[in-house]
Automatic annotation (TrEMBL):
This is histidine kinase. Its EC number is 2.7.13.3. It comes from the Bacteria. One of its GO terms (cellular component) is membrane. Pfam families: HATPase_c (PF02518), HisKA_3 (PF07730). It is an enzyme of class 2 (transferase). SUPFAM superfamilies: ATPase domain of HSP90 chaperone/DNA topoisomerase II/histidine kinase (SSF55874). SMART domains: HATPase_c.
Length: 435
């Protein structure tokens, strides 16, 4: 709506200004002004007024069509300006008399050409076309500026012969030919050509800026989508990590509780005191598992870096809980313990926890477990084995799969399967230096 109102205002201002100034002799060339001073004004301008209004309609149509059809609008605007520039010589060929004269000068309404040329140059994909139009218009203006004085003299001679009573027109027509040529060149070749070049440059700059902004917007949209994908991937990774943590905690705690409850049930009648100890261990393990679950679930709402994470220093407590369930566990450290990155220590703790949980769930009663940590300069070797039946193909549940994912994320190696001397073992090698 704003564009439509602006176009209306522009057309009205240019049309009114042209109507007020179109008959002013100031816009004629020096020779034409001298001829008008000799012959005076004509008394019949009906044909000229009709042509003027037709040109005004062309200008109006060009203004309103320039956004949708810029090339067609350029043709209409050019026709409007051409009617003003070429109207007088064309009409003189039809009726060589003073009454047929139409001032061959540009009017304010012809500024529509600049507006439409700007629209054409700023339209997408029309740079070569708009440049060709600019060159054509410039060539036409230069031609009119150079050829115009050659046309004026014969026409003025014809007018002088039609009214010899007035002063000697032959001399008047040639009174100052150099000034007439300079005026024509300045009026039609220099100033309008400069204005056309400015309009085209402004439109081309607008098109370039719009294209650059479109590229930047597309690039920003791509970056935003990429950031959203990264965020979604990070969320999925974090969810997977928390899921593995919950599985490790819940599976280990429940496995220990089940084993202890089974022992308490078996000793309920023959050794009541052992049942009490086993039940107490069930309560302790359950509380510890609940506390660990609350800690992990709290990570969803808090900063994970602020929450304490299990480390290798907590392995003795973990092994003691397994021992309290009735499963003997030996723990050995080979080499000189070193301070490891937090990610390595947490992963090592979870690997041992899940491997012991796997042994409690699948090893037959009476099996023994062993946990061995071997510290090397560049790697940490972890081995968790039991003495149960280790034949057959190992079935990878969520626990063993979680261990494999942890080790792969750290760039280590993982193996789970029957041991060489019977039983089942889980072995991993974690690169300490890479972490």
């Amino acid at each position: 709506m704003r564009t439509f109102l602006g176009d209306c205002a522009m057309v009205i201002v240019l049309a009114v200004t042209s109507a007020l100034l179109g008959a002013d002799p100031f816009f004629n060339t020096p020779a034409q002004r001298k001829m008008i001073s000799v012959y005076g004004s004509v008394d019949d301008w009906r044909l000229q007024i009709l042509c003027w209004w037709l040109a005004a309609l062309l200008a109006v149509a060009a203004v309103f069509a320039r956004h949708r059809w810029p090339l067609a609008a350029m043709l209409l605007a050019t026709a409007c300006a051409a009617s003003h520039l070429l109207g007088w010589p064309a009409m003189m060929l039809v009726s060589p008399s003073p009454k047929a004269m139409l001032g061959s000068d540009l009017l304010p309404l012809d500024l529509v050409v600049l507006v439409v040329l700007y629209a054409l140059a700023s339209a997408a994909g029309t740079r070569r076309l708009s440049l060709a139009v600019l060159v054509t218009l410039e060539a036409g203006l230069v031609g009119i500026g150079l050829v115009g004085p050659l046309i004026d003299t014969p026409i003025l001679t014809i007018l002088a012969k039609t009214n010899p009573a007035k002063s000697p027109v032959d001399k008047l027509a040639l009174a100052d030919p150099l000034a007439d040529v300079l005026w024509q060149a300045l009026s039609y070749a220099v100033v309008p050509a400069l204005l056309l070049g400015i309009a085209w440059a402004a439109g081309d700059n607008a098109r370039t800026r719009r294209f650059h902004l479109a590229v930047l917007q597309a690039r920003a949209a791509d970056l935003e989508r990429e950031q959203e994908q990264r965020t979604a991937l990070a969320v999925a990774t974090e969810r997977g990590r928390i899921t593995r943590e919950l599985h490790d905690v819940v599976a280990h705690g429940l496995s220990v509780m089940v084993v202890q409850a089974q022992g308490a049930q078996a000793a309920l009648h023959r050794h009541p005191e052992r049942s009490e100890v086993a039940l107490a261990n069930v309560i302790t393990t359950g509380r510890a598992s609940l506390a660990e679950m609350r800690r992990l679930l709290g990570l969803v709402r808090a900063d994970p870096s602020l929450a304490p994470q299990p480390s290798l220093a907590a392995l003795p407590d973990l092994i003691e809980r397994v021992r309290s369930s009735g499963t003997p566990v030996t723990f050995a450290i080979i080499g000189e313990p070193a301070t490891l990155p937090a990610g390595i220590e947490l992963s090592a703790y979870r690997i041992v926890q899940e491997a012991l949980t796997n042994a409690l769930k699948h090893a037959p009663p009476g099996s023994r477990c062993s946990v061995d940590l071997s510290f090397n300069p560049d790697t940490l070797h972890i081995r968790v084995a039991d003495t149960g039946a280790g034949g057959g193909t190992p079935v990878f549940g969520n626990g063993l799969r979680g261990i494999a994912e942890r080790v792969a994320a750290l760039g280590g190696t993982f193996r789970a399967g029957p041991a060489d001397h019977g039983g089942f073992e889980v072995t991993t090698v974690l690169p300490v230096a890479a972490a």
